[in-house]
Amino acid sequence: MKISVIGAGYLGATHAICMASLGHEVVVVDIDSEKIAQLAGGALPFFEPGLTELLKKVGESKSITFTTEIAAISESAIHFLCLGTPQASGQLGADLTTLNKAFAATIDVAPEGSVVVGKSTVPVGTAERLAAELQESQKSLTLNWNPEFLREGHAVADTLEPNRIVIGANQESDTALLSDFYRSVAPNAPQFITNFATAELVKVAANAFLATKISFINAMSEVADVTGADVSLLADAIGIDDRIGRKFLGAGIGFGGGCLPKDIRAFLARADELGLGDSLQFLREFDLINQRARTRAVALALKELGDPRGKKVAVLGAAFKPESDDVRDSPALEIAETLATLGANVVVTDPRALENAQVKVPDLGYSESITEALRGADLVMHLTEWSEYRELDPLEVKKVVKNPIIFDGRNVLDVESWRKAGWKLLALGRTL
Ligand code: UGA
């Protein structure tokens, strides 16, 4: 099928490349000519495992084209809107400027009878507003809302084998084309055909629930700090109950990235507008617990370092999570920056995110070499759980650092082997 993807960011590029790999003819439009040139040249503007290889394959088969001209969508049957909806500056709510502009440009040139599909994460009520604009324009186009659940680092598999498809529309018959399209993409994925509000809410409710699980366990971690309990064992023991589940009960320095933090804030802002502030008040608390995890990590480091000035802190990890080069709202980078502001000599290493980290926080020390980052360190902070760091040999690392003290901000290191090698281990919610 001929389809178009408007917005070549993380979501759009992944969706477009994956759909082209299934044989669809895909036109990708973005106003950022540099990004378009890069993609057309076979390079991704971000890191995602497996996606560059797929781009190379579809590029060779010529099933995908990249352009800055919105008119190029004029032969597509479906247009996927994949625009970013970041947190508005100085506010909790989302900034929909780019989405609104792209929507207007799309309906202007989309051919009669085609379907416009919103994939961006939006405040509930947005699709209904856009549908009203569509009606006013008197174009014979259909609007569907089809949220995306892919995770960075697993985006290819999540797109090609989605665990669910959600399609919101004004009426069920409006969803026929998109529903058939996804039947061919993912025949086994259950489809939920809903109204607009439900589709929009499924997305933000899912992210709010994930954030809730993480902040719940980090609240337990605060309790464990005071009472002497062990939050990791607590998570194992409550998570074994499959009504609760162990996933997303990883206590530590908390969640970051371009989705969970801004989505719960946008949800709060929308709830306030709807007079539902009290119903989602808990998300405000969970945002605060999440921020506190970062300050607790800094406090623990300071307790160990004493006066941080002139002390070397080796930071393992800058990305908000492993298998990603994304440093948006990264707990690791924020902790590193705070320690540096307090006078520590911080050297950060990361297998993929150094370039982005350097752009965001230019004043930190950075090293591509793990050994150089660790050399002479008074304290090691393990903040992003890349497998490279989990597999480090504690005996070898000990030879390089000044003091064998490591803070495990993700609670994934093998405590026994580090301890046996003579290390002092620090963690939140655990006495090690
Ligand atoms: C999240 C959702 O998981 C996706 O389903 C959703 O599609 C996506 O947002 C989105 O809205 O686009 P992502 O931001 O890629 O995906 O990252 P997650 O894997 O959810 O991790 C988020 C953060 O939580 C990371 O900083 C991670 O380190 C942290 N985390 C995760 C914990 O602190 N503890 C855990 O147990 C799990």
Tell me briefly what this model is.
This protein is an alpha/beta fold and 432 residues long. The protein contains 17 helices and 14 strands. The chain folds into three domains: 2-194, 3-Layer(aba) Sandwich (Rossmann fold), CATH 3.40.50; 204-286, Orthogonal Bundle (N-(1-d-carboxylethyl)-l-norvaline Dehydrogenase, domain 2); 295-426, NAD(P)-binding Rossmann-like Domain (Rossmann fold).
> Can you summarize the main beta sheet?
6 strands, parallel
Span between termini: 57 Å
Alpha-beta content class: alpha/beta
What name is given to the CATH topology of the largest domain?
Rossmann fold
Shape: globular
Strand element count: 14
Number of helical segments with 4 or more residues: 17
CATH superfamily of the largest domain: NAD(P)-binding Rossmann-like Domain
Our Rg estimate from Cα atoms comes to 23 Å
Give the strand order, joined by hyphens, for the main sheet: 3-2-1-4-5-6
Give unreliable regions as ranges: none
Tally of domains:
3
- Give the cofactors and ligands: uridine-5'-diphosphate-glucuronic acid
Could you say what the CATH architecture of the largest domain is? 3-Layer(aba) Sandwich
Please estimate the helix content: 40-55%
Provide the residue-averaged pLDDT.
97
Oligomer: single chain
Give a description of the structure.
This protein is of the alpha/beta class and 432 residues long. It has three domains: 2-194, NAD(P)-binding Rossmann-like Domain (Rossmann fold, 3-Layer(aba) Sandwich), CATH 3.40.50.720; 204-286, Orthogonal Bundle (N-(1-d-carboxylethyl)-l-norvaline Dehydrogenase, domain 2); 295-426, NAD(P)-binding Rossmann-like Domain (Rossmann fold, 3-Layer(aba) Sandwich), CATH 3.40.50. 44% of the residues lie in helices and 13% in strands. The chain has 17 helices and 14 strands. It has helices at 10-21, 33-40, 51-61, 97-109, 126-137, 155-160, 176-185, 196-227, 231-239, 260-273, 281-305, 331-341, 354-360, 370-374, 387-390, 394-400, 415-420, and strands spanning 2-6, 25-29, 64-67, 78-81, 115-118, 142-145, 165-168, 191-194, 312-316, 345-349, 365-366, 379-382, 405-408, 424-426. Strands 3-2-1-4-5-6 form a six-stranded parallel beta sheet, with helices on both faces. A six-stranded parallel beta sheet has the order 11-10-9-12-13-14. A two-stranded parallel ribbon has the order 7-8. Strand 5, helix 5 (126-137) and strand 6 (142-145) form a beta-alpha-beta unit. Helix 11 (281-305) packs across helix 12 (331-341). The longest helix is centred in the middle third of the chain and has 32 residues, at 196-227. It is globular. The N and C termini lie far apart (57 Å). The model has no long low-confidence stretch (mean pLDDT 97). It binds uridine-5'-diphosphate-glucuronic acid. The site of uridine-5'-diphosphate-glucuronic acid (UGA) has 21 residues, from helix 8.
